[in-house]
Amino acid sequence: MTEVAQKKVASALAPLQLSGEHHLCPGCGHPVAWRILLEAISELGLEQRAIGVVGHGCYTNIVQLADIDFLQCLHGRAPAVATGVKRVHPDAAVFTLQGDGDVASEGLAEVLHTAARAERITTIMLNNGVFGDTGGQMTAASVVGQRTKTSLDGRDAETHGHPVPVAELVAALAGSAYVARGSVNNAGSIAKSKRYLKRALELSAAGAGFTFVEILTMCPTGWFLPTAEGPGYLEGTFEQTYPLGVLKDGPR
Amino acid sequence: MTEVAQKKVASALAPLQLSGEHHLCPGCGHPVAWRILLEAISELGLEQRAIGVVGHGCYTNIVQLADIDFLQCLHGRAPAVATGVKRVHPDAAVFTLQGDGDVASEGLAEVLHTAARAERITTIMLNNGVFGDTGGQMTAASVVGQRTKTSLDGRDAETHGHPVPVAELVAALAGSAYVARGSVNNAGSIAKSKRYLKRALELSAAGAGFTFVEILTMCPTGWFLPTAEGPGYLEGTFEQTYPLGVLKDGPR
Amino acid sequence: MTLTRGTVEIDTERCKGCELCIAACRPGVLVMSEETNHQGYRFPLLEPGCTACRACRDVCPDYCFEVFRFDQAMEV
Amino acid sequence: MTLTRGTVEIDTERCKGCELCIAACRPGVLVMSEETNHQGYRFPLLEPGCTACRACRDVCPDYCFEVFRFDQAMEV
Amino acid sequence: MPAQLLQGSDAVARSAIEAGCRFFAGYPMLPFTDLLEAMARLMPGAGGVCMNAETEIEAVNMALGAGAAGARAATGSCGQGIALMQEAIAEAALNEVPFVVFNMARGQQDYFQATRGGGWGDYRTICLAPKDVNEAVEHTQLLFHLADLYRAPVMMYGDYLIGHTYMSVDMQRRDYGPLPPKDWALDGRRGGTGASRQIWTWAMGKANDPGPGPDLHWQRIAAKFEDVARAEQRWESELCDDADTVVVSFGSAGPFVSQVVAELRADGLRVGAFRPVSLWPFPETALAEACASARQVLVFEVNAGQMIDDVRLSVGHRVPVRPLGRVSIDFSGMRQGEILTVPWIRERVRAAMNETVMG
Amino acid sequence: MPAQLLQGSDAVARSAIEAGCRFFAGYPMLPFTDLLEAMARLMPGAGGVCMNAETEIEAVNMALGAGAAGARAATGSCGQGIALMQEAIAEAALNEVPFVVFNMARGQQDYFQATRGGGWGDYRTICLAPKDVNEAVEHTQLLFHLADLYRAPVMMYGDYLIGHTYMSVDMQRRDYGPLPPKDWALDGRRGGTGASRQIWTWAMGKANDPGPGPDLHWQRIAAKFEDVARAEQRWESELCDDADTVVVSFGSAGPFVSQVVAELRADGLRVGAFRPVSLWPFPETALAEACASARQVLVFEVNAGQMIDDVRLSVGHRVPVRPLGRVSIDFSGMRQGEILTVPWIRERVRAAMNETVMG
Amino acid sequence: MQREVVLTGIGGQGVQLAAKTLAMAATAEGRQVMMSSHYGGEMRGGQTEASVVVSDGQLRPVPILESTWSAYVMHHRYWPGVAERLRAGGIAVVNSSVANEEITAPGVRIVPVAAGEVAVEVGSAMAAGFVLLGAFAALTGLAETDSLVEAMRQLVPPYRTQHLAVNEAALRAGAEVGAGLDPVGAPR
Amino acid sequence: MQREVVLTGIGGQGVQLAAKTLAMAATAEGRQVMMSSHYGGEMRGGQTEASVVVSDGQLRPVPILESTWSAYVMHHRYWPGVAERLRAGGIAVVNSSVANEEITAPGVRIVPVAAGEVAVEVGSAMAAGFVLLGAFAALTGLAETDSLVEAMRQLVPPYRTQHLAVNEAALRAGAEVGAGLDPVGAPR
Ligand SMILES: Cc1ncc(C[n+]2csc(CCOP(=O)(O)OP(=O)(O)O)c2C)c(N)n1
Ligand SMILES: Cc1ncc(C[n+]2csc(CCOP(=O)(O)OP(=O)(O)O)c2C)c(N)n1
Ligand code: SF4
Ligand code: SF4
Ligand code: SF4
Ligand code: SF4
Ligand code: SF4
Ligand code: SF4
Ligand SMILES: [Mg+2]
Ligand SMILES: [Mg+2]
């Protein structure tokens, strides 16, 4: 190979990212979501206005990796905590980063009340359909048929009930200004998810209302799957229950 | 007036009703809802299968007046408690009776999770848009513009947010089999509300899934209105935010 | 003369004077008393012309009405 | 001979062997190693034909890729 | 400012605003409701925020968020509502976010709840129990100070009698001395500088500045609470020096006991009154000293016996410690019941003295 | 049945089912999660129900509903999750609904939470702290019995070492004697007969059969808990008779202390071990007796000092009561940290004995 | 000189508002006042009670009275509990439109006032509480009628201003009734 | 006779499964066994450790070992904490495919096994833990290979049965390696 001029077109780390080391599993979808979130903040020029509020889950480790202010809070409560933060600093760009267990299970009241209140914050829900951090049990967002450690034969609608489509519920509330659902199972969907994040953060920081982005992420560990099968499983099951796209975009 | 033969066509008390004495305010809408609920249970022949689970609110006094099994439980938690009861007695006709503060504020997660789970129970929400029992503060269901003790100048969407339409959220969940909204502000709407209650109780007792009936009730005390103005205020404000009718009826 | 098809028994001592029955009565045969009951509330009084429609009974939050239909309507 | 428009630097020690990059690479120029890194994982190796499309970098959960575009494409 | 006739709740709300409280979140529950209503009425005019939180859990977490953002923040409730807040109160103690919890309790039955928590982990909550509206006004300001001084959630144990009684109140800003700067509070301004902040119960730090982790962090917190336990004991002791019998009570039971003691002293009985003003830290040493000459200690509390543990911990087994109160709730369930009257207490104290001291 | 190798959580789940538990509701939280998983796996086969409750609050309220309907019901969690359950545990104590709470705690830092509640009102919670998997199996069955006997929620204080350790377990149904019939339980069958039932914390009764109301009802509950306090004290005492030094510990710290005591006895030191098996009611009299000849009492607990209050309440000021443990959590935050080892404890006990007893 | 009054009635009769009006009026006249109220919330039991202590000097802050000099009785239901606290030589002003049962207490002067009827006359049955208050204050001298009117105006919340006129009329009508009764010594 | 083994590694290496397999196999052979494991949950720190005590008689139930006779080392990261507990005369079986740093402890025999390479040979790098276990058991005699295979079959959850074959191959391949090493005295 001869020496040719070359230009870096993509860095491993996002701006605002302090390190690339983390303890998440091989093939986990969360770290990609972290990266596009930090890119979105940086591209919007919000780095010195951003305050993140994170729940309890595998994704929590973003606190260690990102060079912005963070408040790690109780499981499910992030939207309420973020409300307190935002009302004290109305000019800050306040967002929550949470998992599906955090939002759809423990914190369903919090996210819906905050959305109805039109709180000017963004909630980002990383939906992998399991409590990843506790080892892969059924959440309120697990899809029908999904095997988890507490639904070993697959989630059965008759006994376990149906998944809670948080994004659809948030979109039904008058206080929400923007709702979208993306995923991180291939480069194209990653790029789209990043656009959703940018619009959501921009709108809430501009005072339009509550904005919500759900991102479907792979959890090969909780799905009991080889890492390479994660993206395909996500598409074949999660995207059927949770269709991708913008659910709501507009002033309230 | 000469003596003519006469037949009683309507009793003051419903079957199953032990007494007509209660301490609710003049013009309160709750007692009428109690009556049609008891009539519905009796007409469906469910009196020896019914177990009621009630929350905290002015309506709680039904426990003293009705001759069926009752469990008075913590504010907001009735659907979870009812779940425990129902799973132990699958043949019982289990219902919850709650207020809007109980359901839309404190217990939003409970009702939505229970609905998504397709729990075979009926939840009845008496919506008067205030915490009546604590003296008339704003709930998550208070309508925009409504004056309450904690929104003295009227609920303002910008600072207080928008009301949470619980029935619409429940209807959006796959686990709900029947959702309707009635009111008790005149004889016609009372009759319709009773039909809704009968269908809801029948369907959940038959195992169709979770059923939900919202009944708009007058709270002249919490609305700071003369009693006679209650029905008109209900129609002019509540029915605009919360349209009456059947929102969902069908097998899941 | 008014056609009267039925009548109501009113538990006036239980009444809390909310007047919901007054508005509910289509023929307008209920009027509020001037005196008050032991609780201090005024209460409805029946005038001729009841249709036994049950509306008063349906709307009353204090369970004050029993409704009776006459076998045959009367002129009062 | 393959047309190569760019290249990637891979932090193979940080790699956790998930193989997401392998599937993401349209031209299929990434293949998994036989050896393992210090963590015990196999990792991707680059073969000629990279288009500098960044897909590998976008999907990698362990931030292993830096992507470079050549000023001019090369035949390798 | 001349004294005004104010309802206790109103007075506490005004005192909080005077102390710089600019964020309040609450959920109605009697007898706390009035404080919430007062805050909803007064905060906007003071340039602050009062949230009609949709649940107690949201209320306390909003206060936590506001406290973490640097505001003087508060919330409150009672009984069941405080139970729901335990998770967040413990969390705030462990991640060091200050705010004030106004526990306008339904009676005295929540002493364990207030002093032993019910949250998780090794934490304690400073808890002041005012005896009347005027002391509540003072405690309000002191609590905001202590919260900031120790970076911890703190609590007032009030009740219906504090919240609902109208009294002539002297409202003024109290000065409790300087406080450290709130340079730990989150404002988002340091993002991207390498010095962004974080608040995290596990204290894991950032990649460029690792934290101590939970073990060391929680040891440090425990040490802090030991300091608080020594430094912040408050009490009121009346006529104990020569007392045969010391009657211990807290909160709004205090004035009743004081009146009983005054009356019995007038009858020549050697009786004293001791009132812990801080329920935690409990004034152990002061109580032990107050009971130095006593032949019996009577604990009047309107519950099944909760503070009596702390009294026994203070005085040991040297002198008999006897319960005087019992469960007693009024017909409404909102406040102490029939035993909270001067005659009830007076007769019991007299009888106990006849038996033990005279006998 | 021959002994089987079972993980603690699995063994507890099987023992619960053996005891007739047919309703379980839980929410994942380590180290409780394994018990939930075991229940989800085993319950359907036993004809029971295991709910994947969506929150801890729902879990405990589901258990309350199932208990009120007459089933042997249980729930569980740890730390923050138990904090969220306090409201309902108190409620169940006051409306007399039995169920079992498996608190598989992250360490010993939740002693106050377990023994003093954090709910509202005058209530107590029977709490058993097993020392190992086999005792946990036994306690599981005893707890269901006690819950039904006293119509009250009861708790197991387990931890990671109980839940995650695999041991050879002897599983069998224990008989603790007869129980009163559950004629108070709701089944809906008496509607319209004039004898319908109700469960209501305020005990207001029905129009045709008025209840006592909260004041009398709660006094009765308080009296019941006084009976429990006397009747249900459980403990284990080893070599205390002639001991200069008694070391008190609870739960899975017990075996460590026992081993230390055995080793030090072998070295000729007069040391004994005392372990409260019931944390509430705390075995006050037994501990006082065990310490009768002691010159010091050492309290080994892996926290900032919580059980030490109960130890001091038992032995008074007669003999010095010294803390031996401290906050100590492992790197994962899931369990006790570095101090929970035989050498750590042995050295501290030896040092304390050198100082005080030998010195 | 210290004077106590216990006000009793059932929920909805405006007893609490009457107590506050009296307390505020007395404060405005320069006295030290303590007022406490006991009413149900979640437990709609109907009982509502308040006590007001008015003094020219410093007040001892015990908000639950052992005994009282006077009573304001809107309803008889909870009278026995009040009667036992009334000191001999005291006075009870009673809403005779409602309180139809035997209202007596040893050594206590019982003053019946047909507050319900008077209230209907001035325009609203709901204002009976103010009629009784007007009468009570005029009789006892604990506050001037004008002070009561002023206090009532400050206390009625903005969303209830439609009631101001009839409330004032009720207070004044009550005061007239009270002025026509045998006077008692005022506390100063 | 009582033998302790501490198993150490990082999350994902199957250390817990290896420990359970050993414990179950030993139980099936009629011994008394206690196994305890320490691994993070919410705190993904990577460390994973287990200990197994195998005995012919009654076991003392202290689940955190003061010292150990042997170690099973899948990764070197947490070795120092294990090394200090290893008694002189003990043995450490080490996954030399990964554990590339200095693994020594005074008086302890260090036995390197290229578990990673062997695992790749039998079909899956992920089975290295079973290779090391096969070798460890064969060397120490704490359990027969057949018992290990049987225990592994019972432990692998239904949704992972696709791994059974390769796991078995790994155990047997490891056992072969172990059999080729200098033996140590078995505990019985
Ligand atoms: C109140 C409470 N309950 C339970 C937990 C235990 N917990 C910690 S992380 C977690 C799982 C979170 O799942 P999810 O939000 O989906 O995030 P993921 O790990 O899947 O990314 C749970 C249940 C907790 N920390 N607090
Ligand atoms: C956890 C908790 N928070 C607050 C309360 C106080 N509380 C009792 S009843 C009630 C109001 C209920 O309002 P709603 O459900 O709308 O019923 P309504 O009285 O209007 O019929 C509240 C807030 C409580 N009992 N428990
Ligand atoms: S458990 Fe799932 S969500 Fe958690 S790190 Fe592993 S793959 Fe990611
Ligand atoms: S406050 Fe409202 S809901 Fe309650 S009894 Fe009165 S009118 Fe009815
Ligand atoms: S029955 Fe009908 S017509 Fe007769 S009084 Fe009642 S509402 Fe009027
Ligand atoms: S509706 Fe009933 S309570 Fe109301 S005025 Fe008529 S009779 Fe009386
Ligand atoms: S940049 Fe594109 S072509 Fe090059 S290795 Fe990555 S995915 Fe393949
Ligand atoms: S995507 Fe990243 S971590 Fe996964 S195999 Fe490729 S380089 Fe390794
Ligand atoms: Mg998840
Ligand atoms: Mg309501």
Strand content of chain C: 25-35%
Order of helices and strands of chain C: EHEEHE
CA(first)-CA(last) distance of chain G: 7 Å
CATH architecture of chain G: 3-Layer(aba) Sandwich
Task: Tell me the CATH architecture of chain C.
Answer: 2-Layer Sandwich
Shape of chain C: elongated
User: In percent, how much strand structure appears in the residues of chain G?
Assistant: 25-35%
Give the strand order, joined by hyphens, for the main sheet of chain G.
Answer: 2-3-1-4-5-6
Number of helices of chain C: 2
Q: Say what the CATH topology of chain C is.
A: Alpha-Beta Plaits
**Bound ligands, named by name, code or SMILES:** thiamine diphosphate, iron/sulfur cluster, magnesium ion
What is the number of domains of chain G? 1
Enumerate the spans of chain G where pLDDT stays under 50 for 5 or more consecutive residues: 41-45
The ordered H/E elements of chain G are EHEEEHEEHHHH
Poorly predicted runs of chain C: none
Helix count of chain G, per DSSP? 6
Query: Which percent range fits the helix content of chain G?
Result: 25-40%
- The residue-averaged pLDDT of chain G reads 87
CATH evolutionary superfamily of chain G: Pyruvate-ferredoxin oxidoreductase, PFOR, domain III
Q: Structural class from helices and strands of chain C? A: mainly beta
Specify the CATH class of chain G.
Alpha Beta
Q: What is shown here, in short?
A:
Chain A is an alpha/beta fold.
Question: How would you characterize this protein structure?
Answer:
- The complex is a heterooctamer, with two copies of chain A (252 residues), two copies of chain C (76 residues), two copies of chain E (359 residues) and two copies of chain G (188 residues).
- Chain A has ten helices and ten strands.
- With 252 residues, chain A is an alpha/beta fold.
- In chain A, the strands form two sheets. A seven-stranded mixed sheet of chain A has the order 3-2-4-5-9-8-10, with helices on both faces. A two-stranded antiparallel sheet of chain A has the order 6-7.
- The mean pLDDT of chain A is 96.
- By secondary structure, chain C is mainly β.
- Chain C has a single domain, classed as 2-Layer Sandwich (Alpha-Beta Plaits).
- In chain C, the strands form two sheets. Chain C has a two-stranded antiparallel sheet with strand order 1-4. In chain C, strands 2-3 form a two-stranded antiparallel ribbon.
- The model of chain C has no long low-confidence stretch (mean pLDDT 94).
- Chain E is α/β, with parallel strands linked by helices and 359 residues long.
- Chain E has helices spanning 8-18, 33-42, 56-68, 79-95, 111-116, 133-150, 160-164, 213-231, 254-266, 284-290, 307-315, 342-358, and strands at 4-7, 21-26, 49-52, 72-77, 99-105, 126-128, 153-159, 166-169, 198-199, 205-206, 209-210, 235-238, 245-248, 271-276, 278-280, 296-299, 321-323.
- Chain E is globular and about 75 Å long.
- Chain E starts with a strand and ends with a helix.
- Chain G is of the alpha/beta class and 188 residues long.
- Chain G has one domain (2-179): Pyruvate-ferredoxin oxidoreductase, PFOR, domain III (Pyruvate-ferredoxin Oxidoreductase, domain 3), CATH 3.40.920.
- Chain G is built from six helices and six strands.
- A six-stranded mixed sheet of chain G has the order 2-3-1-4-5-6.
- In chain G, helix 2 (79-83) links the parallel strand 4 (68-73) and strand 5 (86-95).
- In chain G, helix 1 (15-28) runs parallel beside helix 4, helix 1 (15-28) crosses helix 5 and helix 3 packs across helix 4.
- The relative contact order of chain G is 0.18.
- At the B-C interface, strand 1, helix 1 and helix 8 of B face helix 1, helix 2 and strand 4 of C.
- One thiamine diphosphate sits between chains A (56-59, 75, 99-102, 106, 126, 128, 130-134, 139) and F (27-29, 56, 80-81, 84).
